[in-house]
Design a protein that fits this description.
Number of strands: 8
Strand order of the largest sheet: 1-5-4-7-3-8
Shape: globular
Number of helices: 8
Radius of gyration: 18 Å
CATH architecture of the largest domain: 3-Layer(aba) Sandwich
Number of domains: 2
Strand content: 5-15%
Largest sheet: 6 strands, mixed
Order of helices and strands: EEEHEEEEHHEHHHHH
Structural class: alpha/beta
Helix content: 25-40%
Distance between the termini: 27 Å
CATH topology of the largest domain: Lysozyme-like
CATH superfamily of the largest domain: Peptidoglycan recognition protein-like
CATH class of the largest domain: Alpha Beta
Length: about 250
């Protein structure tokens, strides 16, 4: 792997992917444990029944725990764009960070550099479109908040990893402004079009997950005008990514 030394430790928590195998999603997590060493032990503990394909420590040390060709147990109960059981189509990367329970903190530069290089390597080998590069909270907003509001998604997008359109310069002026019923319906439709689960009773959790990732300055789960504007921006960006993918299949 380019510019990265990978340490190997096989996790027993893996199985064959559902046939025919399809790998077209990349899911980023934080470990949510007090140390990377503790996370490594848990990801390799057969009693825990959790794993990931890779673990990235805060100093950039990289571990491979499950071969990409096999299914790791990282997504859990999840949903994206009408699809469930995402373990079978995804590669999972665990990024060492104490998480919100143990003292959430920014991801240090060596760690982000390693994550970026690892993601670029995966994308060079796998047909994973930008709209299928997600955080754990995107696919399980009722259970998870990782990798969270401090994760540097814009950096990854600048490297061609995932989606991050620049926010509208008008949006901050409208932060907190209420919106009407018609705007709310349109915003929730945009949220669903992006891929989030917006079943009745789950809208606020989905909105909070969206805000953590795309409007991290304020992630209260309330549908204000700034969030509605950001949803329009992201809905267009995700649709553009999906159109490119479809066009590519037809052309090549």
């Amino acid at each position: 792997m380019t510019n990265l030394e990978i340490r190997e430790r096989s996790s027993p928590n893996q199985k064959e992917r559902t046939a025919p195998a399809r790998i077209d999603m990349l899911i980023l997590h934080y470990t949510g444990m007090e140390s990377a060493a503790a996370a490594l032990e848990r990801l390799c503990d057969p009693a825990a029944r959790v794993s990931a394909h890779y673990l990235v420590e805060e100093d950039g040390t990289l571990w491979r725990l499950v071969p990409e060709s096999r299914c790791a147990f990282h997504a859990g109960r999840s949903f994206w764009a009408g699809e469930t059981d995402l373990n079978h189509v995804a590669i999972g990367i665990e990024i060492a960070n104490p998480g919100h329970e143990w003292g959430y903190r920014p991801f240090p530069p060596p760690q982000m550099a390693a994550v970026e290089t690892l993601c670029r390597d995966i994308l060079a080998r796998r047909s994973i479109p930008p709209d299928r590069i997600l955080g754990h909270s995107d696919i399980a907003p009722d259970r998870k908040s990782d990798p969270g509001e401090l994760f540097d998604w814009p950096r990854l997008a600048r490297a061609g990893i995932g989606i991050w359109p620049q926010p509208s310069p008008l949006a901050p002026a409208r932060r907190g402004e209420a919106i009407g019923a018609a705007e709310r319906a349109a915003a929730l439709a945009d949220l669903a079009a992006i891929g989030y689960c917006v079943e009745e009773g789950r809208e606020r959790m989905a909105l909070q997950a969206f805000q953590r990732r795309f409007r991290p300055a304020l992630f209260n789960g309330r549908l204000d005008a700034e969030t509605a504007i950001r949803l329009v921006e992201l809905c267009a960006a995700f649709e553009q990514s999906r159109r490119r993918k479809t066009f590519g299949r037809r052309t090549f």
